[in-house]
Structure formats: structure tokens, C-alpha cells
Amino acid sequence: MNVYYEQDADLKYLQEKNIAVLGYGSQGHAHALNLKESGLNVCVGLRPDSSSCAKAREAGLEVNPIANAVKWADIIMILLPDQYQKSIYETEIAPNLEAGNTLAFAHGFNIHYNQIVPSETVNVMMIAPKSPGHLVRRTFTQGNGVPCLIAVYQDYTGDTKQQALAWAKGLGGTKAGVIETTFKDETETDLFGEQAVLCGGSAELIKAGFETLVEGGYPAELAYFECMHELKLIVDLYYEGGLSRMNYSVSDTAEYGGMTRGPRVITSAVKAEMKKILEEVQDGRFAKEFIDECNSGYPNLKKLRASNTDHPIEKVGSKLREMMSWLLKK
Ligand code: NDP
Ligand code: MG
Ligand code: MG
């Protein structure tokens, strides 16, 4: 596994170039501002009626309609929601690309699943910060960076990897470390991780624990603290020092009880199901299902969102969080 740092990347590969960042959301604002403050020539591309226009202009960035930004740019980073990238690519981006331009992504979904099929005469690269955009921005303003993945899918001009490294450096990423990967590996591990562990797995684990306590006759408030609130404290320990730090920090009672009972919750049946989920990611079944869902106006997603909102843990949670003065009201 190749890991790159400051001395491995040279901003000169981007310095003579015009750079368009399409989108000014979580990732977009961080890429546009960090690269601009790294001395690069950046403009933001947005739809004309975009609610993000004013924010980008207030931050001192030049904003143009997407088609114009692409026409002007040599390097185009697409930081729009994944499900809209294909249609925006076909209508606003592709007609304005020139041979030798570089298309950049922060996630491989659209390239890996052939939603976007760029001409052979453009470079295609990825710079994927392993963090939410707001942390990409905050660490940069503090003089640091977050780890990033880079990948090259098409190398027409012969220097695409240097451009990707330069982008990662402009973001602050080479201060932390940049790992080289492929569009395939980034896309498949990202989707599997969010489905099985980070978003899907953790949410179902929390709900199952909460429901078990409430059905056992315990107050919902206590169940909330045990099964949702305290999870953050545990995850912080994993984040700082892995499984051993967590086990070191909790009581011996918790350590013994956890190690003997945990495998009864996450059984071999759970892992067998994870393997099926991974296969659906690998053979494109998940991607097709999600694209169909988007194209039909999110009928399932709307239902599932509503059932989550109605879950008792959400009701008790919103009351309890009002007691926590340090939480930002969102
Ligand atoms: P956001 O949802 O935060 O970005 C929204 C931006 O796209 C806004 O500027 C919005 O402007 C614009 N936009 C939304 N819909 C449209 C549309 N139909 N036409 C034109 N512009 C539109 O996206 P993220 O930053 O979360 O994701 C961007 C990319 O980064 C994705 O590929 C994602 O997978 C990847 N990524 C995201 C991470 C994250 O932290 N969120 C982490 C790593 C990778 P408007 O005001 O016009 O709606
Ligand atoms: Mg993801
Ligand atoms: Mg306890």
C-alpha cells in the first residue's frame, strides 16, 4: 500500500491550471476554500438558482453556472450529490470538456458503476478525504489535514497521479497521509462500510438494544442513555486507540461481559449476511437498486425515513438532548 506525504506531492501540477469545483456543500466548500488558500486558481460551479451561491460569494469565491465553469476549467471536481451527477454530467459537463482536461471525484460510485463514462481523452482521478467536509475545512484552517485516498482511473496526459497528489496537498491531506487506491476498492469498501457497519449496522444494533430494554420494562430514558448516548464515548475510545483502548478504559465487568456476550449478538449468521451484502455491492445489484429508487422518486427511502422518525428512541432522544446544553441545536 503506497502512502504519500508532503514531499511526495508538488502543487506545480495544478498551479498553471484553471480549477472548477462543482457544488458547494459538505465537500465542495472545503475543497474550493482549501485549494484557493493554497494559492490555486479556483472557481465554483453551481446552478443559477442555487441556495449555495451566496455562501460561496461571501467566502470570496468566484461563482459561475456549471457549464461556464467547466468550459473555463482544465480540472473539474464534481462535488454534487452522487445521484444527480450522471444527468448533470450529460447536460452541463460532457459537452464542455476538452481533450486533456481532468475530471475529478471524491467518491467512485458514478465511474465504477458506469453511470458516467468519460471520453478516453480526459483524465479521471479521485481525491476522497476520509472525513466529512467540515472537518476537511477545519483541520486545514488549523494548519493540518485529514487522511485522503487518491486513485487514477484514466491517465490521458500522463501526469494524472501527480495532479491527484497535488490536489490532496492543496486540501491539506498530505500532512496526514494519502493512500493510493482504485475506484473499485474505494467504492465497494465505502458502500459496504456504510451499509453493514457505520450507518445500517450501528442503527439496527442501537434500536434492537433499546427495544429489548424497553420491552423488558425499563424506562425509555435509561435505555436511550445505555444504547445510544454512551455509544459515542465508546466510539471515541476506538477512534483514539482501537479495541484495546476501549477495553482498557471500561470496567473489568464491562470488558468480561462484552467479550462473552458480544459474539452472541454478532453471530456467524450476521457475518454470512454481511457477505451477501458485500456481493450485492460487488456485482452492482445495490447500485442498480439505488439508481432505480432515485429515478422513481425515492418511494422506499421516504417510507424508511418516516419509520425511523417515528421510532420511540427518536421521541425520547429529542427530549433528553434538550438537557444537554453543550449539544448544538440543529
Ligand atoms: P452535498 O449534498 O453536501 O452537496 C450539495 C451541493 O450540490 C450543493 O452546493 C448543492 O447546491 C449542489 N446540488 C445539489 N443538487 C443539485 C442539482 N440537482 N444540480 C446542481 N447542483 C446541485 O454533497 P457532499 O459534499 O456530501 O458530496 C459530494 C461528493 O463528495 C459525493 O460524491 C460524495 O459521495 C463525496 N463525499 C462526501 C463526503 C461527505 O463528507 N459528505 C465524504 C467523502 C466523499 P444547491 O444549493 O444548488 O442545492
Ligand atoms: Mg459513502
Ligand atoms: Mg454502563
TrEMBL record:
Pathway given in the UniProt record: Amino-acid biosynthesis; L-valine biosynthesis; L-valine from pyruvate: step 2/4; Amino-acid biosynthesis; L-isoleucine biosynthesis; L-isoleucine from 2-oxobutanoate: step 2/4
One of the GO biological process terms: isoleucine biosynthetic process
Domain KARI C-terminal knotted intervals: 182-327
Positions annotated to bind substrate: S251
Binding-site positions, Mg(2+) 2: D190, E226, E230
Catalytic activity: (2R)-2,3-dihydroxy-3-methylbutanoate + NADP(+) = (2S)-2-acetolactate + NADPH + H(+); (2R,3R)-2,3-dihydroxy-3-methylpentanoate + NADP(+) = (S)-2-ethyl-2-hydroxy-3-oxobutanoate + NADPH + H(+)
Binding site for NADP(+): Y24, G25, S26, Q27, R47, S50, S52, G133
All copies of domain KARI N-terminal Rossmann, residue ranges: 1-181
Superkingdom as given in the UniProt entry: Bacteria
HAMAP family: IlvC (MF_00435)
Family label: Belongs to the ketol-acid reductoisomerase family.
Described function: Involved in the biosynthesis of branched-chain amino acids (BCAA). Catalyzes an alkyl-migration followed by a ketol-acid reduction of (S)-2-acetolactate (S2AL) to yield (R)-2,3-dihydroxy-isovalerate. In the isomerase reaction, S2AL is rearranged via a Mg-dependent methyl migration to produce 3-hydroxy-3-methyl-2-ketobutyrate (HMKB). In the reductase reaction, this 2-ketoacid undergoes a metal-dependent reduction by NADPH to yield (R)-2,3-dihydroxy-isovalerate.
Stated name of the protein: Ketol-acid reductoisomerase (NADP(+))
